[in-house]
Amino acid sequence: MADRRRRTFDSRDGDAEVVEPLLRAVLSYAPRDETPTPHPSEGITLRAENGSGCIRLELAIAGDLGTGIPGPFGSRFYECGSYEVIVPQRDPHDGALLMIHLLAPQAPHRFEFTTSMPALWSLQLEHDGSVSVLDEVGSAVIFIGRPWAFDGDLQPVHVYYTIENGLLVQNVGATVDTGYPILIDPDPDAIITGDGRLVTEAWTPRLVGGGVVEDMPPNSLSS
């Protein structure tokens, strides 16, 4: 895992206290000199490598979210009762990242994303759960990776996309054995080690003075 953590963190920053190890690991993975986190209504824009166009994805409920509250490590939390939308601080070159955090079983298990893209472009669901964006001649020009999630016991949760009337819908297949909270679409660079293992509660970023957060050997568990 490449270490891009180049700030001195104060875990007490912000109004949202975070005690979950997985969420803290994701939020703490913030690069240096990051700009303020974007509001979810700004959406996420993905561009075709050939420059032919882009697609903008926006969480359908984003317009109803307020200003949110600051969380630790430069993040921002948008509370919605039984769930919350979280925007962690991130390198602008990596693009925005939006996570959904289900706090209890009564939380919604379906989230719609509106799509804006050039005329005659379309979405295609692939067998591996990812989504291809097809241009006007049917060529795949943008790829959206399949969603993923972990529950409160660090167990994978089945999350999958459907395409419904131009909407990209994220569905959460929680079961009676799923432990809450569920974190959907965490940044894999923040929680997966170089050898493909999931960082667990045994690892936390080392807080140091002088602007550098050192890498510590993580205790981890196979993903």
Describe the structure.
With 223 residues, this protein is mainly beta. The chain contains two helices and 16 strands. It has helices at 21-28, 188-191; strands spanning 44-47, 54-59, 69-70, 76-79, 83-87, 99-102, 110-116, 122-125, 131-134, 140-144, 149-150, 159-164, 167-172, 182-184, 197-199, 220-222. It has a six-stranded antiparallel beta sheet with strand order 3-4-5-6-14-11, with no helix packed on it. The protein has a five-stranded antiparallel beta sheet with strand order 1-2-7-13-12, with no helix packed on it. The radius of gyration is 18 Å and the shape is globular. The relative contact order is 0.20. Residues 1-12 and 201-223 have low confidence and may be disordered.
Strand content: 25-35%
Please tell me the overall pLDDT.
80
* Number of E strands: 16
SSE succession: HEEEEEEEEEEEEEEHEE
> Uncertain runs with pLDDT below 50, 5 residues or more?
1-12, 201-223
- Structural class call reads mainly beta
Output the radius of gyration: 18 Å
**So what's the overall shape?**
globular
Distance between the termini: 15 Å
Q: How is the main sheet built?
A: 6 strands, antiparallel
Separate helix tally: 2
Q: Please state the oligomeric state of the protein chains shown.
A: single chain
Spatially, the strands of the biggest sheet line up as 3-4-5-6-14-11
